[in-house]
Fold:
Amino acid sequence: MALTNSYLQGVYETVQKRNPNEPEFQQAVYEVLESLQPVVEARPELEKNGIMERIVEPERMFMFRVPWVDDQGKVQVNRGFRVQFNSAIGPYKGGLRLHPSVNASVIKFLGFEQCFKNSLTTLPMGGGKGGSDFDPKGKSDAEIMRFCQSFMTELCKHIGQFTDVPAGDIGVGGREIGFLFGQYKRLRNEYTGVLTGKGLSYGGSLARTEATGYGLCYYMKEMLAYKGTSFEGKTVAISGSGNVAIYACQKATQLGAKVVTMSDSNGFIYDPNGINLDVVKDIKEVKRGRIKEYAERVPGSVYTEGQRPWGTKCDIALPCATQNELNEENAKALIANGCKFVAEGANMPSTPEAVAAFQAAGVFFGPAKAANAGGVATSGLEMSQNSLRLSWTFEEVDQRLHDIMVNIFHTCITAAEKYGHKDNLVMGANIGGFEKIADAMLAQGVC
Ligand SMILES: NC(=O)C1=CN([C@@H]2O[C@H](COP(=O)(O)OP(=O)(O)OC[C@H]3O[C@@H](n4cnc5c(N)ncnc54)[C@H](O)[C@@H]3O)[C@@H](O)[C@H]2O)C=CC1
Ligand SMILES: O=C(O)CCC(=O)C(=O)O
Structure:
């Protein structure tokens, strides 16, 4: 599909002019505007009230200096960001990413996507995102702590449990959230649910660690059931070996599939016997090492340097590493190898050309903002538990996560069908996420 609606073309041209040199942000906006064409045509009040012009412009974004001292006593300086994109349906909510590739474009694309994702969960959360170009790779625990404390020293002026609630993303897990929480508490002298993904001893939720990967598999389970099949006996290719990839691998295996690949930014491993997650967790969560060590430890597995896993024969692909990690050529290789189902665990891992290739070949494709919404949904459940001053059991949180993912799938199916694009989950996710935000913006006047 192309962007042919003249109103939306104008909105997109303004985005290009206002955000030059921001390819990821432009890519994310283009896809959403493309999907929303039938909605804008059916609902003239959206144009009259400037909803589209407003929804593509962040409410607020700030950038700040993050100075910290390394283990040699030298001062280092990184750049911090937070975008507070849209608060129509709740306080800003979204993760913090620590990776050298972080810049304004990456943070804005992630914040924009987060608005629609959070809306799909049905929980009251607006969209935000943040991070820094700090590279945690090879840093000591003490360096990570000093960086996190410096980052929070500025961030704490702008967030709060009713304003903006950050969480983890690439490079931010339990260790970092702990350091960030400690510094917020110290500076603000308040003990509140200002972050999610917290440790269980200080207000975290059971199942938040597993939630994005598990949620991805619950979404895929519905995709498979809709087409009359299941995970049982299927071969799955996963990219990444971080939080999302690890728990996607665990749940897919529990549901009867065999996961044969995982990766990191250096290369991928192939294990024809099914990935041994204990080994991956030891490498990635304990030793913080590289995935190639897996092939050194597990007989029969192979490591391929400098490649992604998409040339592997599989029924299901779950990209769980990073944006634009699966291009048109990769999509064609997956299709040629018999892959029939794809759901995105990472944010925007497939390029637009890859998505088009999947859809043209009849591959059932679940986009990130629906398929990986289980993480933020469970963050929403962590916020609920913090407000209630109660903790739910693992089973209770997992059941709620499951039900939310099933509901998101059916929201996508219904929204796509309503606007004449049956089974197009990209259209369904964008439309389903958009309508609640648009209705809230219309109700709240020009703001
Ligand atoms: N953690 C969460 O709850 C959620 C994460 N996501 C998305 O899932 C993806 C993965 O995040 P996490 O697992 O949390 O992060 P993580 O830091 O635990 O793991 C990131 C993984 O991606 C790999 N990676 C990073 N850059 C890469 C590159 N350029 N090429 C290949 N691999 C690369 C890393 O080696 C690692 O395996 C990201 O796109 C993130 O935005 C989406 C929803 C929620
Ligand atoms: O749990 C959260 O608040 C954010 C998760 C996240 O960053 C994402 O959904 O991309």
In short: DSSP finds 18 helices and twelve strands in the chain. The mean pLDDT is 98. The pocket of NAI (ligand 1) is lined by residues 168-171, 212, 240-245, 263-265, 320-322, 325, 345-347, 372, 375 (CB under 6 Å). The radius of gyration is 21 Å.
